[in-house]
Amino acid sequence: MARPDKAAAVAELAEQFRSSNAAVLTEYRGLTVAQLRELRRALGENTQYAVVKNTLTKIAAREAGIDTLEDQLFAGPTAVAFVTGDPVESAKGLRDFAKENPNLIIKGGVLDGKALSADEIKKLADLESREVLLAKLAGAMKGKQSQAAALFQALPSKFVRTAEALRAKKAEQGGAE
Description:
This protein is an alpha+beta fold. It has two domains: 4-127, CATH 3.30.70.1730; 129-177. It has helices at residues 4-19, 33-43, 54-63, 87-100, 118-126, 130-176, and strands at residues 22-27, 47-52, 78-83, 105-111, 114-117. It has a five-stranded antiparallel beta sheet with strand order 2-3-1-4-5. Strand 4 and strand 5 form a beta hairpin. The model has no long low-confidence stretch (mean pLDDT 82). Forms part of the ribosomal stalk, playing a central role in the interaction of the ribosome with GTP-bound translation factors. It comes from Streptomyces sanyensis. InterPro entries: Ribosomal_uL10 (IPR001790), Ribosomal_uL10-like_sf (IPR043141), Ribosomal_uL10_bac (IPR022973), Ribosomal_uL10_bac_type (IPR047865), Ribosomal_uL10_CS_bac (IPR002363).
């Protein structure tokens, strides 16, 4: 029979897995408490970074319906970054912190139920943020609308210039006779 404190910890972790967009598993061996605090600050308010017990986390992930995490991700001291906001921002925060502090190792994670390797998380970090991508999309759409407006405006304008040229040519021919 499971102890009540462990059952409560599993339930809490399972709820965090369910309520987050992504979860990134890291190894934090060698980081000081001050560095962990700095990492939590760097990740922002949309990411909760929690040191977890491997066995309880595996059970919680299974209870949350996440069967894609491999057992090797749960080796060594593990901490999980539960992301409720933009996963790109959190991946960038983890990547940048890991560059400055090589003791932080990104093991892998899960994004919308799909398992991610450490390399895929680094690729995710290389993406631009959601806001930047939306701004680029809006700019591209606005550009296409401007092109369409110019095209629609060009047709009547060209017709008027052609009609004026024909009128001028007719007047010239009529005046020459």
